[in-house]
Specification:
Helices cover 43% and strands 18% of the residues. It has helices at 2-13, 16-46, 50-60, 78-92, 159-170, 177-198, 224-236, 286-292, 294-302, 304-307, and strands spanning 98-102, 109-113, 122-126, 134-138, 143-149, 154-157, 201-203, 215-216, 241-243, 249-254, 258-264, 273-278. The two termini are 38 Å apart.
Length: 317
């Protein structure tokens, strides 16, 4: 406060020349800031170099364009630069399924996907605390599908959001798996591009297709009753469960040499129930199983309080 008062006093006591010079310098500084902004936008729009693209997006996502002397009536919000970055990165890999649109009468940006109706729109929401980063957010359902931090090079997918949006809101309302998979492929590819092009630490969570992936359950000490329900529903659909070779639990073999294992991977008397999915080509995730096998999906949803796959608790409460 003292500095502000000093500035006011100094301005009031300046000569005419001093006042005009201060005003002119304020304009120059504001215009120079605008020039810096346009240079960054040129990079974001035109560069074919990944690191240049990432650095431009990082800077613009926290850029303050307006100054005390110069304001720009037409400008994007900081969250929009995450969206532009994502669109540019996808286009550099010839992935054009996410369509970047502008809202009428504003510069606000959002994504729609060809496989979904325009009722579902996607944008970023910046985290306004010391953690920073942003969530990729579906507006109709309010689901945060993933969290990204450009500076820390971090990406985390959210199992709950994918289940609620793509299964509860889309699949169970009649949207086909082909349409859903088109959207999923783009989001998964985005994660791969961040990991492979920039070295991001990426947790694909429920979407991980690696046979070594262990999907941790919300209920670390899973009750025998939940496992028994799987035995019953599997038998009703002509599948036989066997005891898990990995320990206390159950294993089921599905078509295509696909094996799902639900077992306690804990050590030293501490339970830690997980699900694993094994297929010869490592192309199937637990989420794929839920999309394509009704009885497995019903078992998961009916026992979601225990079976929900845990996402990173640091970014998804």
């Amino acid at each position: 406060m003292a500095n502000d008062e000093t500035t006011k006093i100094d301005a009031a006591t300046l000569s005419t020349h001093g006042k005009l010079s201060m005003f002119n310098q304020g304009l120059k500084s504001g215009l120079a800031n605008g020039q810096k902004f346009t240079e960054l936008m040129d990079q974001l729009i035109d560069t074919t170099d990944g690191e240049t693209l990432l650095q431009a997006a990082r800077t613009l996502s926290d850029f303050k364009l307006d100054s005390a002397y110069v304001t720009f009536p037409h400008q994007y919000q900081n969250a929009d630069y995450y969206l532009i970055f994502m669109s540019r990165l996808l286009s550099m890999h010839d992935d054009e399924q996410a369509i970047l649109n502008t809202r009428a009468h504003s510069e606000s940006l959002y994504h729609v996907f060809e496989g979904l109706s325009d009722d579902y729109t996607f944008l970023y929401q910046v985290v306004d605390n010391e953690n920073g980063g942003a969530y990729y957010h579906e507006q109709t359902t309010g689901e945060n599908l993933f969290y990204v931090h450009l500076e820390r090079r971090l990406l985390r997918f959210n199992s709950r959001a994918f289940t609620n949006l793509f299964i509860n809101k889309l699949l169970l309302k009649g949207v086909g798996t082909d349409q859903i998979n088109t959207v999923l492929a783009t989001l998964i590819n985005f994660g791969h591009y961040l990991r492979d092009d920039f070295g991001f630490n990426v947790d694909f969570n429920i979407l991980d297709v690696d046979n070594a992936a262990k999907y941790e359950l919300r209920e670390a000490n899973l009750s025998g009753e939940v496992v028994d329900k799987l035995f019953v529903t599997a038998a009703e659909h002509d599948y036989m469960l066997q005891n898990s070779p990995a320990g206390h639990g159950a294993e089921i073999q599905l078509p295509g040499s696909l094996v799902v294992d639900v077992f306690d991977a804990g050590q030293s008397q501490k339970a830690d129930w997980v699900i694993t999915v094994h297929d010869p080509e490592q192309r199937v995730s637990w989420f794929d199983v839920l999309l394509h096998f009704d009885f497995m999906r019903d078992w998961y949803l009916e026992n979601i309080d225990a079976l929900e796959i845990k996402a990173d608790p640091l970014v998804f409460a």
